[in-house]
Each structure stands twice: as C-alpha cells, then as structure tokens.
Design goal:
- Chain A: This is Nitrite reductase small subunit NirD.
- Chain A: InterPro entries: NasD-like, Rieske-like_NirD, Rieske_2Fe-2S, Rieske_2Fe-2S_sf.
- Chain A: Keywords: 2Fe-2S, Heme, Iron, Iron-sulfur, Metal-binding, Nitrate assimilation, Oxidoreductase.
- The complex is a heterodimer of chains A (118) and B (844).
- Chain A is mostly beta strands and 118 residues long.
- Chain A contains no helices and twelve strands.
- In chain A, the strands form four sheets. In chain A, strands 2-3-4-10 form a four-stranded antiparallel β-sheet, with no helix packed on it. A three-stranded antiparallel β-sheet of chain A has the order 1-12-11, with no helix packed on it.
- In chain B, helix 14 crosses helix 16, helix 19 crosses helix 25 and helix 21 crosses helix 24.
- Among the domains of chain B are: 172 residues, FAD/NAD(P)-binding domain (3-Layer(bba) Sandwich); 120 residues, FAD/NAD(P)-binding domain (3-Layer(bba) Sandwich); 231 residues, Sulfite Reductase Hemoprotein, domain 1, CATH 3.30.413.10.
- The relative contact order of chain B is 0.06.
- Chain B contains 26 helices and 38 strands.
- Classes of the chains: A mainly beta (118), B alpha/beta (844).
Amino acid sequence: MEALVADKEEITWHLACRVDDVPTDGGACVLINGHQIAIFHFARRGEWYATDNECPHRQQMALSRGMIGSQNDEPKVACPFHKKTFSLRNGQCLNDDGYQITTFPVKVTDGNVYIGVE
Amino acid sequence: MNTDKMMRVVVVGNGMVGYKFCEKLVTKQKNGLRFTLTVFGEEPRVAYDRVHLSAYFDGKTADDLTLAPESWYAENGIALYLTDPVVDIDRERKEVRSHHGVVVPYDYLILATGSGAFVPPVDGVEKDGVFVYRTIEDLDFIQSYAKKARNGPASRGAVMGGGLLGLEAAKALLDLGLEEAHVIEFASRLMPRQIDDAGSGILQRQLESLGLQIHLNKNTRQITGEDTINGIQFTDGSALDVDMLIISAGIRPRDELAKLAGLTTHPRGGIVVDQFLQTSDPAVFAIGECAVVHHMIYGLVAPGYEMAEVVASRLMGDDKEFKPYDMSTKLKLIGTDVGSFGDPFVSEPACRTITYENKAKGVYKRINISPDGKELLGGILVGDAGQYNMLLQTCKNKTILPPDPEDLILGSRGGEEAGAGVMGLPDDALICSCEAITKSQLCHEIGENGHTTIDSLKKATKACTGCGGCTPLVKDLIQGVLKQQGHYVRNVLCEHLDYTRQELLDLVKINRLTTYNDVLDQFGKGDGCEVCKPAVASILASLWNENILEKGRATIQDSNDRFLANIQKGGTYSVVPRIPGGEITPDKLIVIGQVAKKYGLYTKITGGQRIDLFGAHVGDLPLIWEELIDAGFESGHAYGKSLRTVKSCVGSTWCRFGVQDSVSFAIEVEDRYKGIRSPHKIKSGVSGCIRECAEAQSKDFGIIATEKGWNLYVGGNGGSKPQHAQLLASDIDKETCLQYIDRFLMFYIKTADPLTRTATWMNKMEGGLTYLKAVVVDDVLGIADELEREMQLLIDTFKCEWKEVIDNPELRKRFTHFVNVPEQKDPTVVFETMRDQKRAKEWR
C-alpha cells in the first residue's frame, strides 16, 4: 500500500470494478494491491460504501458476501459467519464493541467504481 | 437441640436418598445450628441416579448419572468415605466403625442403606451368567458378560421378574443387542403392582412387537448348566435355553447393620421407624428403601426424598412428619408410557370405572370415579400417558370432575383439552413431586422473581431436576403466568416490518408481491436488515417458487442461499447433491468420487444418508455442479430452509422384517417436496417396519410402515432439544398420507414464525396435536383444499436452481471471489491435512 500513498492528506483513487459487477443492494470483493476490499452498492439509498473484506471476529474474508441493511438510520453490513454487524459509515461493530473495520471512500464515474486509499 | 456445640451427623449409605438428605441438611443450615456431616458409602462411586440406570446402556456415562460430583461434598465440608461401608454401630458410645477401621462419633445417625436385589432361593443362582440389576457395577458385569456371550454360538438373555425393575433390565438386554430377550414373570400379568390385566395385555403386545418374549405364570424350579448357566427349568415342566439371566424379582431392604445393632426390624425385612423416621433408638433414623414406615416399604424415589426432607427438617428443629405417601408413578418402559395413580385397582361397586382400549394403537386408559361421579379415585394409563400429570393432580386435589368425566381420557370432542389446564389447579397442588414444590411456589418464582425459563426455575427451585416428569406442566405454568400478566408479545419481524410472519405472508400473497423492495416499500420502513430480508425471501419462495437469485432476490438471501452452498470455516463451501431416500447407483457414487478428487474436496457421509463435499472455492461451484448435473444429480438444498432429506431404511425389498417398501416411498416423498422453501429446514424419514431404523419419529414428519399401510408422525426434532414426533394418523394408505403431509407442511409454511422448526411450532400451538389433527385430518377450518392446491403449485413449479444457474451467464458470473480478477481464488484460504484428507484451518 505504501507506494500508493502520495501524500498524507491526499487520496489515491484506484479503479476497482464496473458498476454492474456489484449486485444491487449487495456487495462484491475486489483485490487492490493484494488488499481485499468489499464494495457495497446500497441502491435503496443511492449510496456506495467500501470496507475491509475481512471480518475481524474470526478473520474470515467474507464481509462482501454479507447482507446489508440499516439499524435506525445507520447503514450496516452483517457478516455471514456469526452475524456481527458493522456500520458502513465508520466501520464500528454495532453488536460487539470490541471490533472495528476500516472503511474507504468510493467514487463512481462513467460506470466505473473507484476506491480511495489515503 | 443444643445450639451451643457442633451437632455430629453421620449418614450410612450414599445412594439417592442418602445424598438428598445431605443436600437438604446443607440448604437448611441455620445460624447457630452448626453440624459436622460424615457420609459412608459402600460403592466406589458417589451417589448416582439409579432410577435412570438403564440409560447407562443407552449412551449415558457414569458421570452423566452422578447426582453431585465429589467436589460438592468437599465444598460443603462433608467428610465422604467411599468403598467403605459401616460394619458396626456402638449405640452406647454413639459411634460407628467402618470396614477400613474409621471410627466416627455421632449425635444423630441416619441409616440410608437402601435395598439390595432379592434373589429367590432357586437352585443354580450362583452359576456364572446369573446377575442382579442394582448398581453400575452390576451393569458393567452384565455388559462385559454379554459381549463375551455374543461371541459364542448364541446370545439369549432372560430377566426373571416382570415388574418395573425387571422391564428396565429387559430394556438393557435389548440395548445390548442380544438376539433373544425373555421376560419371565411369576404372576399372570406384567407389572402386577401397578396395572390391571387389560393394561398389562396392551403393554405385553407393545413389548413383544419390539422383540421381547414374555412368559407369564412361570415359577422357576432351577437354573441349569455346569458352572455356567445354559437354561432355566420351570415347575410346569417347560424349559428355556439362555446364556445369561438377570434376576429382578424384587428388593430386599438392607437392614443387616440395624439388626446387628439391636434396632427393631420387620420380620419380612426393613428397619421399623415411626412417622418421624425414628428407629427404636431415638438418636438413629432410617430413610429410603431400608425403612418400614406406616407398615410398608416405599420403593420409589419421591417418598424417599420426602423422608430425607422430614429428617433434615427435624434435625434443624422444625416439626415435620412423614405422612402416607402417594405411590402414583409414571415412566417410559422400553418406549411405552405406563402410568398408575391414586387407587388403580378399586372396582365396582366402590367406584365407577371408565376404560378406553385401542389395541391397534397400543393404548389403554382406565379411570376410577367415586360412585357420585364427583371425584377421581385413581387410574391406569398404558401407551399414552399424556394426561398423567393432570389426572394425578385432579385425583390428589379432589377436584370436582366435569359432567362428562370420560373427556379426561378421551379429550373433549370440542377440540379443547378437558379441564382448565394447569392454571385451573389449586395453589397448593404439588407440581414437582420429587422436590415437593407446589404451584404457588412456582408461580411466585415466575411472576415475582422473573424466573421465566425452565433452566432458571430449575436453579431457583430444583423443580424438574428429579424425574423430570413435571417439566411439561412447569412449561405450561410459565406460559400461563406470563399470559396472566399480559406479557404476550406479538412476534413481529424487526424494526423494518411491524408484522408477524403469518400476517406478512397473507399481505404478500393478496398483493401478489414478488420482490423484497416492493414488500418493504408497501409495508415497511427503512432499508431492511439481516433478519427481515431472509424472512421475506422465504415467504416469496414459499408463495411463488421463482428462482431465489433472480429479480434482485440474491442479496436478500442468507449467505448459504445466495451461493446455493453451505459456507464453512475459511470461506469455502460444501456441496451436497440430492440422493433421494439415500439410494444411489455405483455409477453415481463414482462420479461423486471423481468430482471430489478433481476439485480437491473433503468427503463425508452426512447424518441424512447423503454425501457432503467440503472445501470448494466459490468460483469452482458452477464447474462442480456442471459435472454433477451432467451425471444426473440435482441440488440437495442442504443450504436452504427447505426439505433436506428423507431418510429411509431398506424396507421390504431386502429386509426380512420389512412390511412395506420404505425406500420407494421415501424417494417419492423426497421428490415431491424437494426445493420447497419453508420457515426452517424440514427433515423426514420412512421406516419399513416398527423397528424404526430410519428414525422417522425424530423428523419433522416421519412415516412408519404398518401391516395395513402407514403411520404418519409429525413435529419431531433432533438437535439440542430432541423431541419425538407425534402420531397424526395411523394405518392410512399412501395417497392419504401424502394428502395429510401436503396439508401439514403448507399449514406450517403459512403460519409458523421465522426460523421455527415444526416441533417448536406445534409446542406453541394452542390446542397442540388435537388442534393440528382437527385442521389437517378433519379440516375444521375448511382450508384443506386450498392448502393442497398451494402445495401442488409448488410441486409443479419445481426446478433445480443449480441447473438454472449454470445455464444463465448473468447468475453464473456472481460465483467469483474477486470481481476484478474473476480467475483468481481467495489466497487466504488455507487447508490442513488430516487422515489423508484436508480440513479447514482452525480459526483463532
């Protein structure tokens, strides 16, 4: 990852996939420089999110296969293994304080999805 | 009692009652009343559950049967001497001496020496291969001898005694797998103390159908053989060849120590005590099966526990006495319920007797009613003791009977259970007779102290911890109290959909909705979640049976349904092709082996007679299925909340016992209901005869062949809370059987809460099996036709979802780990090797 960091404040955008590679109201996994990132197309809200693909609970590469939804108004994803749920906005685990995932900014242009890495 | 100095209590005997006394004394300990407690036991083990001894051959270990571990005694300051019986009591010096020479002084001595097996004075009882049935050691001897005998030319065992214990011992013989198992009874019927001739006849037929051979009116003259038993000769001149014999002809109170110490004993055995359980020496008490109270020996555990309670209370200064105790009993004998309560044998003109007998189903019920028709005096239940607890309470509490008392055993024809249920019982009704806990005590714990589960009630009151027979009543009581408090909560799906599953299903159906977003837009709020999405997905599939991955439905499926495979540790999937009824050709077996080798899969036979292939990368799933489908396989839906498998035994095509072709029927049933989505998974089984090798009674619906057709059972469950299925209809033909299953399944699909198995659904159903029967068999709701039509639609629209995926490029492309590098597999997947196959890497 280090090589991609141009500046501490600056975001480097990586082409991740095409819009229709990600199922509507669901997720898909992309490989960016050896890092597995889950991308979610939350079509009901017209929003895109990206997080670690790994669930920190049992270190399983599975979050992209999880169901998304909302808790109150907070967008979230549920890990398919043990249903730990994480905020898609800030990566905080919503049903177990001990866990946290990283989130990444997403940009969609001309049918292409880009992930931002600081 | 002297409150200043330490009271020294010594208990002789560490059986169930001896242990219960220690437990009672410890919990009753009061400030200022301090004591030391010493326990001597003859056996090498701490006190264990002798009532369920036969469970030892059924997979339970000695530890499972232990009442409290040795550490419990240490924690409570109890000195415990095992394998060290007391051999002498010096009543002058007030001290006991053990076999190993331990001398302990006492202020109070409690004799809980129990009983031994009564061995009648018959020639040859000393021969090898003759056993008694009392202790775990006895069972170990029997087991190792039976193993030896099985290597010999024959393996034939017999039990002498057809009473309660004798039949328990006979079960042990069956569990040991002996080829022949005989029961020899001196009287003209089985269980002569508990049930009458008609009840015994029904019981006998049930036991014979399971392979027991029953010999009544048999008086044994001698046991034959050189050093080892080879047969039994009877006084009527007949004989029986056997390799082993278990004597279970009654009990003999262990009073030899009391006799030696000069205490008064009964001429026919037993230590004579008064209503305070005090022997002829006021410092010495006797409790349990060694004691003669009110001129009798109480050979059951519940009165023994009550004796422990009385003595423990008296030592703590409370005034309590032992009253004549009810000898009602209910037990399961080799799978058959037998209950006997109050006065089972009283006959006309002292009472009016109502009997019900159904030989086909093996059910006999008798109730004895006072001549004025107001009170229940006693009764007998064989084959179905479901009403035992209610009847016992009605009898004990002298509850005024309804105008048609036959409803008590037949159930009222209005569909409701007779009487007002457990909530109608008086406050002082004894619910748990082992621990003497009343209804009002339980209601207080449930209502005031918030113990609303069986587990927490067990901790708070010890109810249900003895024989467990009161558990259903206690469950009803919890429900009843909660309902009274207005605690009934409507079981809505989640924050997004404020409907129960049943309500939502009706709405989706009426409005003909086919996508999740339509449902949420019309009836919900927010964006959904991992609870309501799969619930709606299941409803949509149950109603319309369209492919679950189309029209945006893939992302509302639970992970397994989304990838049509079961996710496993490490993120790989397992694959289960359908093998209907467990029948498979050698060619298909070879294909499974070839596919497993090609894709590097771990293979294992499942509990449902199929083959599970583990460790498949998500990207390999369509390739694997392409090959399996080419060979004629279909999806097994192991990933779905839908029909899993219909297990079968081989049935009449090969088996010498089979009465119907269970395999063909299982295949037909599996093909009929495959792929149908339901609130939870559904399992089934078909057995070709009453031996039930397919374990159909543990399934959501199970079918057992009879001479005349099929018996249909519903609502069974394995898992963490196993439950036997209940008989819905008997001796029906195949067409009727399928018709009832159609109705049953569709009624379940339409009314159950999400992720609720049929067993739980039925347990929650008001009216239970009676109501279900009324709906499914008698069609009281008039919905049978509709249910059948809806089921037929699902059957007619079945398609293999895996075939659809491999033929559809849009769906197929979703089976990949990285969407930007579809050809690459997840590099974090790691396997380890075990027994020449691979396994998932253990997670941290």
